[in-house]
Design goal:
Shape: elongated
Order of helices and strands: HHHHEEHEHHEHEEEHEHEHEEH
CATH superfamily of the largest domain: Periplasmic binding protein-like II
CATH topology of the largest domain: D-Maltodextrin-Binding Protein, domain 2
Structural class: alpha/beta
Largest sheet: 7 strands, mixed
CATH class of the largest domain: Alpha Beta
Radius of gyration: 27 Å
Helix content: 40-55%
CATH architecture of the largest domain: 3-Layer(aba) Sandwich
Distance between the termini: 40 Å
Number of domains: 3
Amino acid sequence: MPASPVLPPSERNFARRIDLTSLQLFVAVCELGSIGRAAEREFIAASAISKRLSDLEATLGITLLYRHARGVDLTPAGESLLHHARSMLYSLEKMQGELSEYAEGVRGHVRVHANISAIVQFLPEDLGAFVQAHDAIKIDLEEHLSSEVVRAVQEGAADLGICHVPDGAGDLQTQPYRQDRLALIVPAGHPLAAGGAIDFVDALDFDHVGLHTNSSIYVAMHQAALDAGRSVRLRIHVTGLDAMCRMIDNGLGIGVMPQRAFELMRGGIGRRLVSVALNDAWALREIRLVARDFSTLPVAARTLVQHLQAPAATEALAA
């Protein structure tokens, strides 16, 4: 494990001279535009705030505020400090919140980023079962595009990623989680609805409702169209699979989405939409678990990985 970087003496002294209470009061004055109003909100004498701000300016060697009869205005240096102070105080509040959860019995914390396919199709049940079995572990789940999930793991913003792993995953490690199959979703009376399974190229004569152009589904569609010397007539972009279904239901195009996700959402649209199987090899996809190094994950994260691998093992035995 690499050693923590050592700050030079000047930077260490600077960090020791910064007073958090003074930063909090500085932010309050900036937000309210007046030392007096900040004093009322913070239940402290205005003279005490004024003294702290003067000391802060002396410590930093810069003027932070223009003082006038109506209140205060920020100097350019004050604007910069306000940005950094807010960020620092927010991080401290987040740290306090997370540490208090440990004190209250939350003994693990796993940050998970996943793509929409995993979140809609599989994670509600899998994470629900995990939480019931490990109620002392907290899971923070965020939805992102697959490429963004990979980047979050690479940068350390997420402990674990769950997505379709795109090219450029670098040195990240992956393990199997689930498989999903894409299908074409069309209105019940659509010309493509009655002919059984089709090749995706047969759908290129029609307008499409699609997800973000950086989504793994759109990238696969676009590549398939390029291979056929065609293009996707993508008329409408949406951010979710439910929105895609609603657009298709109202005659605005056809779309490609995971078959299981469509089945889960179908109750709200009755029999007005149908799915058409795609023969293309890229329609069968792997959703994988992604980490920088599974062996060095915290115990809570490794416990979650073991839980999520169970469905993959079951699917492998069934195959």
